[in-house]
Specification:
It is built from eleven helices and 19 strands. By secondary structure, it is of the alpha/beta class. Helix 6 links the parallel strand 4 and strand 5. Helix 7 packs parallel to helix 8. The longest helix has 18 residues. The radius of gyration is 23 Å and the shape is globular. The chain binds zinc ion (ZN). Zinc ion (ZN) binds next to strand 1.
Length: about 525
């Protein structure tokens, strides 16, 4: 029963994941009505929407960035799926490839989010329950839950993508109020070879938006003005139909050139053609925007064709054969745009480096590093989708109205300590409540964000007892003010035991979750 219920719910979410399609131009210069004075709008805090590289650099001096993103739940299937394209690749400086995961929380396995983040990838917000034009609770609750249950520092979650790419002026205002750095929900829908192209380099909203002007009410012509808040447009590919043949998300699921069936070689051809147009032009970034579940080879019921998987790798192989091509996360792209340097100086860009946290591999701590955390993750046996976490299971599933429920405490054990604001994820021991970092090289400070009820500032840490192991931990206010309870200490006993047994059976039987 459980397995079936989980599968049908997941199948529904697969349907919901078929978002991100566009069929023609979403803007034009008249609809954009955009003006911006580069003499007053200057980096790093302000950047005009422009087809030319930032910082006055010549196209030949700038890297060709290829952004790789994934959307929706983080699971073993989706991580496997991303890894089949990225795990074996390196950037020109020898560092592993990083990507951006726009995470929604239904069916997400939190411990894999921790691992993915600690490995250097960007975790971004895609609402808690995958809703378009979301209310604040969906946007901010995602930060609170990812901080509490995946140990992601609040300050590290900088970006947002709207489910179904369905956003409004309100969405941008909510993001700015919650101290987000950027949104990436808009489309660049006109080829870079067209004089009226809307393929702008990432820009700030000091002078409003300049993409999607034909289909989102109340934007463009100077609106909305949100100084310092960035938009990273999603750059479409174009097939032989040109501006009438755009392909935005998961282009390999689309029929190319007005055809009636998927044709991998035609898809590869137009992806290469669009890349070349960017690369030989002004080098605006290009992207692979994926729903990785569609390309899973391990998820029951999904049969991604090998020919499609091979085609995508063939594209990335070909892309990486060109000079000065970097496959990056949005966070890495934005770091370079804010402080652009020519390709000859890329070694100086911190965001493109690959520091590995130096944690003693023999230490047994639950920290997002597989060699350290083995045997220490907790199983949270919820009926519709069980998950794992280092940071203590919540008593009930997270919801937008209750994104950080009180912790279940296993009888005979202490509550686990959530990531405090003065220790980075790989160095934090949530069982001992202790920070292993003892040198300035691993020193860390998270920042509070105005994401609590009525915009109250919220800081990570706490829950389940004092954080005495970490010095100078700021006072922590539990989101709902509720203390942790003992798992087997009261009337919860029967319910929790039954759920545990049922869910473990489901895990064994269907491999719904794996570490
Ligand atoms: Zn989505």
């Amino acid at each position: 029963m459980l397995k079936l219920a989980a599968f049908s719910a997941f199948a529904l979410s697969l349907v919901a994941a078929q978002d991100g399609g566009i069929t023609g131009p979403m803007s034009n210069p008249a609809a954009a009505g955009y003006s911006c004075d580069p003499n007053s709008c200057k980096l790093p805090k302000c950047n005009c929407a422009s087809t030319s590289p930032p910082g006055g650099l010549q196209p030949s001096e700038v890297p060709q960035f290829v952004v790789f993103t994934a959307d929706d739940a983080v699971q073993s299937y989706t991580i496997d799926s991303v890894n089949q394209f990225l795990a074996h690749r390196k950037n020109p400086n020898g560092c592993p490839i990083k990507m951006t995961y726009f995470t929604s929380l239904n069916y997400t396995n939190y411990t894999l989010v921790t691992d993915w983040y600690v490995a250097g990838n960007e975790i971004a917000d895609h609402t808690m329950t995958h809703v378009g034009t979301p209310p604040a609770s969906e946007i901010n609750g995602n930060l609170i839950a990812l901080n509490a249950l995946a140990g992601i520092p609040l300050d590290a979650i900088k970006g947002f993508r709207a489910p179904f790419l369905n956003y409004s002026v309100d969405t941008f205002n909510l993001l700015a109020a919650a101290d987000f750095t950027y949104d990436s929900s808009s489309s660049a829908s006109i080829p870079v070879t067209d004089p009226g192209t809307d393929a702008f380099w990432p820009y700030t909203l000091d002078n409003g938006l300049a993409n999607d002007c034909l289909n989102v009410p109340g934007i463009c012509k100077g609106q909305p003005k949100i100084p310092g808040f960035w938009e990273i447009p999603m750059y479409a590919f174009f097939d032989n139909l040109g501006v009438n043949g755009p392909h935005l998300m998961d282009p390999w699921l689309d029929n190319a050139n007005g055809g009636t069936t998927v044709n991998d070689s035609a898809t590869l051809q137009y992806m290469q053609n669009t890349f070349t147009a960017h690369y030989t032009g002004n080098r605006q970034p290009i992207g692979l925007y994926t729903h990785p579940i569609h390309l899973s080879t391990t998820y029951p019921g999904v049969n991604a064709p090998n020919s499609t998987i091979n085609m995508i790798n063939q594209y990335l192989d070909w892309v990486q054969e060109q000079q000065n091509v970097w496959i990056v996360s949005n966070e890495q792209l934005l770091a370079w745009v804010q402080n652009p340097v020519p390709v000859s100086q890329l070694d100086s860009v911190d965001a493109l480096k690959c520091p590995t946290p130096q944690v003693d591999p023999s230490k047994k701590i639950c920290n997002g590093m597989p060699q350290n955390e083995a045997g220490l993750v907790q199983e949270c046996a919820f009926a519709d989708f069980p998950f794992y976490t280092c940071y203590g299971c919540p008593q009930v599933e997270v919801t937008p109205s209750n994104p950080n429920p009180p912790q279940q405490v296993v009888s005979g054990q202490q509550a686990r300590y959530r990531l405090p604001s003065n220790c980075s994820t790989p160095f934090w021991d949530p069982i001992a409540g202790n920070c292993l970092c003892t040198s300035s090289s691993c020193a860390f400070t998270d920042n509070s964000r105005p994401i609590g009820p009525n915009g109250a500032n919220l800081t990570g840490g706490g829950t389940g007892g004092s954080s005495s192991g970490a010095s100078q931990t700021p006072s922590y206010v539990n989101f709902n003010g509720a203390p942790p309870v003992k798992l087997f200490g009261s009337g919860l006993v029967g319910v929790v035991c039954a759920v545990f047994v049922g869910a473990l059976g489901a895990i064994a039987g269907s491999a719904l979750v794996s570490l």
